[in-house]
Amino acid sequence: MSSLTRRRLTRRIKLLAASFILAVSVGVVWLTGVISLDFFLGEVERRAEATLAVQAAVLEKLLDKFRLMAPLMARGPDSAEIVRNHDVERGKQVAAIAAGMAGAEEVWFLDLNGDVIVSSSSNDLTATGNGRAAFRVVFRQAVQGQLGRQLLPGTQNRPASYVFASAVREHAAVAGVIAVRVGLSDVEQAWALSKDPIVALDPSGSVVVTNEPAWRGRPFSELTEEANVVVLRGDREPTGVMKLTDRARGKSHLQLATRLPALDWSVVILADTTEARRQSARAMVIAFLLCIIASGAVWAMLARREEMARRHRRDKAASLRLERRVRSRTADLREANAQLEQEVRDRLQAEADLRLAQAELVQAAKLATLGKMSAALSHEYNQPLAAIRSDAEIAEMLIARGAPDKALGNLSRIGSMVARMAEIARTLKGFSRRSGTDIRPVSLRQAIDEALLLVMPQIKRRGVSLKTSLPKEDIVVAGGRIRLEQVIVNLMTNAVDAVREQPDPQIELKLEQAGDQVRLSVTDNGKGIDAETLPHIFDPFFTTKETGAGLGLGLSIAYKIVHDFSGTLTARNTDKGGAEFTIRLPVAGEKTIAAE
Fold this sequence. Notes:
Structural class: alpha+beta
Largest sheet: 6 strands, antiparallel
Strand content: 15-25%
Helix content: 40-55%
Distance between the termini: 101 Å
Number of strands: 18
Mean pLDDT: 77
Shape: flat
Strand order of the largest sheet: 7-6-11-10-9-8
Number of helices: 15
Low-confidence stretches: 124-131, 227-250, 361-370, 430-436, 591-596
Radius of gyration: 39 Å
């Protein structure tokens, strides 16, 4: 074969190889785009379905919550009396209490003419000028003995609301109607957490509820007509991709819908697919680059083979040496590959061991934190729970004796104790990280009085003599009332425990002000604190009590609370042998009782 023929054959082979590589690269890039787009769109669809299910449940559960409110109120004896006597004062009170406790936007009492007798709010529909026309459908349904249901559409500036109504009967006759209006703004606020547009459509296709206020009240068909909809799946009618011109020009969205049979509404979510398409484009670029690299490798291999053939033709004598060198290099490469494989296996094993150790450390940290929180809650909740139990028993006795009005005070104190327990939980949570509880001006006298109210039963039961030295004028400090009360209770309880073996147990609580500092001390005549124990008395889980009698958290928590208030808590032994705990706090600049 001549040199010219050989060169022509070589060029033809190169041209065919380049065409084949180009065709394979285009096919690989196209196939990568199709598969990756389907995968990423599937991820978007799954996330959108989960979001749609959650947000549709939010709307449905809100309306289910208030569906039985109107029938239940209509059966009450007060309702018939209010409707019959047109008792505005009593009706206002009942409607306001019901609306406040249930979270309804408005509660109305209506007569048989549909006129509003009284409303829980002065800004009712009659006052706004709509009158009975705004709820004539729900009124008619209620008078006919049905559960009245009617949507009050919203505007771009005002969310929609939903009305439930039930007839008030007296001697089997309809005497009036009770209507409950539920605002849908809470649903829109919950939907606002989603970055994708969500709409609820009534049977006519109008937008009723949405996290896009500009869409409220508009027909959904107008939005889709403005948008250039492209349906992805014909077998799933509400699913498609739409470009929303009023949000971000050129963005594509996946449309998913679900129905609420009880309302005959549809909830639609428009999931943004722009990022999925970008990820698919990135995958195609990566595939294209890999194809270029592979093509370069193949081309280099072909060029190398050609060069080797040229060398073989130029110098047959050097072929044997070249073959030996190739075999030597191949052996070295095989050995290097074997070493590399062994290093990869060793590294994978080391990474697996590291992940296992990290998982064990994380689990140990979780268990330690859970143990601290559980132990702290068990320690700090004993006193409020005892007070709640005592107030509950007294309230039960008062109700049994026919004095429910007197039991209201006990129930109010129970509510205060529950609030205190919630504040204690927040304080204990801040034990391991910085607390977010506000610091405000607090009446120190009020905190002391409430703390003494909690520990006084224990003081009387132990026969302890309590002496208090408090100034006539109130002192206001910067802190939190419930947390400050918690500190005083802890110090008083520890003092009671310290004097339990004394023949004449005594505790003194003293409050005094010196300049811009206030000093509160709790002194007992117990055995005092050992010199070895004193440096560790504020450490967490350090206690000198017997096993099961204490966890060593009370003083540690009190120490942290006082330091959060920019104060100090110290302990020392008195000359008489007892212990004295002293709190120093800065005086607040304004005398304002903290509302907690």
